[in-house]
Design brief:
PG/BPGM_mutase_AS, alpha/beta, 6 strands, PGM_Phosphatase, six-stranded mixed sheet, single chain
Length: about 190
């Protein structure tokens, strides 16, 4: 049985300023750095053999704080959902989570962004390819809230990340991987 720990990056300047942050980037805040340190302490003792990160600076910085000076691979497939022309704009433009009749798919793809099914497909394909490697038993991958949500939506048994307080910065999804199947174990909250 293999283990995947899929982590969201630490808090960023755009998170604090309530800016839409997909493929654009902003640095970790002091709080984000502290969150990553707490996540590192939480994961201490897990015998990770491979590390992966989105190519975004916020994810790479988070991984480097969590794991220290370890080699890791940056993958574009682990990037956040692309929000097109809305990148860097106010989160006030986002569709409401409380109104299921108007979703992100109704807005962002029409302005150069991605559909959720495209994010789901690239995340599931990338993480499956990683976990299929024979020497990958304990993997830590740092990504983004929307990308992790897409991954969870793309599984045969989708997981609702809005439960239990949501999926906050530096939270970690733990999955097992066996016979080409991801099974959700738990959310680790810092």
């Amino acid at each position: 049985m293999k283990h995947l720990y899929l982590m969201r990056h630490g808090e960023t300047l755009f998170n604090v300023r309530h800016k839409i942050q997909g493929w654009c980037d902003s640095p970790l805040t002091e709080n984000g750095i502290e969150q990553a340190k707490k996540a590192g302490a939480l994961l201490q003792g897990i015998p990770f053999d491979h590390y992966y990160s989105s190519t975004a600076e916020r994810c790479c910085d988070t991984l480097e704080i969590v794991a220290g000076d370890v080699p890791y691979q940056r993958l574009k497939a682990l990037k956040e959902r692309n929000f097109g022309l809305f990148e860097g704009e106010s989160e006030d433009l986002n569709p409401s989570w409380h109104d299921p009749s108007f979703t992100y798919d109704d807005l962002f793809p029409h302005y150069g962004g991605e559909y959720l099914h495209d994010v789901s497909k690239r995340m599931v394909e990338a993480l499956t390819e990683i976990m299929e490697k024979p020497d990958h038993q304990y993997v830590l991958a740092v990504s983004h809230a929307g990308a992790c949500y897409g991954f969870c939506e793309g599984l045969s048994a989708p997981i609702d990340l809005t439960l239990n307080g949501g999926f906050k910065n530096c939270n970690i999804l733990h999955f097992t991987y066996d016979q080409h199947t991801f099974s959700f174990v738990e959310i680790l909250h810092i």
